[in-house]
Amino acid sequence: MEVYVPNRACSCTRCCTRGLMWPTILVTLGVLMLMSEFDVVRFHYTWPILLIVAGVVKILASSAPTVGHHNHVIVDRIMGTGPAAPPPPSPPPPPPPFDPSQGVPNG
Ligand SMILES: [Zn+2]
Q1: Banded pLDDT at 99 (limits 50, 70, 90)
Q2: What are the C-alpha distances in Å from 48 to residues 23, 59, 75, 77, 101?
Q3: Terminal C-alpha separation, the chain
Q4: How much distance in Å is there from the Cα of 100 to the middle of ligand 1?
Q5: With 0-12 CB in 10 A as exposed, 13-18 as middle and 19+ as buried, what is 14?
Q6: Which residue from 13, 17, 26, 28 is spatially nearest to 58, judged by alpha carbons?
Q7: CB 52 within 8 Å of CB 24
Q8: Neighbours of ion ligand 1 (CB under 5 A)
């Protein structure tokens, strides 16, 4: 079973849809306030539309497919769902032992 963890760097449908929540709410708020400003309908009658819009975006985001989704690297390693971690780099070889007969190197 794969655990879904939102990832801003991912470009799958679910992650992209989740990113639309606040822009959609802000645009809706702007439209509602504009309608109120032009006396089309007062804002205190229309503000629940914000809740409806947030719910619709939430439903769309939770039902969107996760094909191609990439969890965070740490989650992938814990769950064992990601690519294997590269082996750690080998340490550099130790310097050759000092030979007094060759003198002290300059520098
Ligand atoms: Zn994703």
Answers
A1: confident
A2: 17, 17, 37, 42, 89
A3: 60
A4: 62
A5: buried
A6: 17
A7: no
A8: 10, 12, 15, 69
Tokens 């050759």, residue located: 96
What is the band of 73 on the pLDDT scale with cuts at 50, 70, 90? low
The pair of three-digit structure tokens given for residue 26, joined into one six-digit string: 């802000």
Whole-angstrom distance, CA of residue 46 vs CA of residue 91: 66
- Chain segment 8-58, per-residue pLDDT in tens: 888 899 999 988 999 999 999 999 999 999 999 999 999 999 999 999 999
- Its pTM stands at 0.60
What whole-number distance in Å separates Cα of residue 59 and Cα of residue 40? 29
Q: Rounded to the nearest whole angstrom, what is the distance from the C-alpha of residue 85 to the centroid of ligand 1?
A: 20
